[in-house]
């Protein structure tokens, strides 16, 4: 695993997202209910930034909503929880060390549901 610092924890709003532009991919770093997640910042349906959407619980799952058409994506797995999106987005392992948020974008983009921070 190749974790790299992408931002400071204080830069990510609670129950919100921050867009981080990296060399290979744009990542949405999300804080929700005390957890930090990282996922591809591109809706698989409409190709708009997910970081501009609302972070909320949808059918019991922590999600981020695409602001354009309303699809929600599970922050833990990247799977869409409702239509019109049918394809998942990549999710990445996250570590928080002090004030630093570290993300491994070299991971394969699929995390098991039980992964933690």
From TrEMBL:
Q: Record's InterPro entries?
A: Rieske_2Fe-2S, Rieske_2Fe-2S_sf
**SUPFAM superfamilies named among the record's database cross-references:** ISP domain
What are the entry keywords? 2Fe-2S, Dioxygenase, Iron, Iron-sulfur, Metal-binding, Oxidoreductase
Example of a GO MF term: oxidoreductase activity, acting on paired donors, with incorporation or reduction of molecular oxygen
User: Where does the source fall among the domains of life?
Assistant: Bacteria
Q: Which residues form the Rieske domain?
A: 4-103
Q: Which CDD domains does the protein's record reference?
A: Rieske_RO_ferredoxin
| Protein name in UniProt | 3-phenylpropionate/trans-cinnamate dioxygenase ferredoxin subunit
Q: Which organism is it from?
A: Geodermatophilus nigrescens
Q: What lineage, starting at the top, does this entry show?
A: Bacteria, Bacillati, Actinomycetota, Actinomycetes, Geodermatophilales
């Amino acid at each position: 695993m190749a974790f790299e610092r992408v931002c400071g924890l204080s830069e990510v709003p609670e129950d919100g997202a921050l867009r981080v532009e990296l060399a290979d991919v744009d990542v949405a770093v999300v804080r929700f209910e005390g957890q930090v997640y990282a996922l591809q910042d591109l809706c698989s349906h409409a190709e708009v930034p997910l970081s501009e959407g609302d972070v909320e619980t949808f059918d019991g799952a922590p999600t981020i909503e695409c602001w354009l058409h309303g699809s929600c994506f599970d922050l833990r797995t990247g799977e869409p929880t409702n239509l019109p999106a049918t394809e998942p987005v990549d999710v990445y392992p996250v570590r928080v060390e002090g004030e630093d948020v570290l993300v491994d974008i070299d991971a394969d983009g699929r995390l098991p549901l039980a992964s933690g921070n």
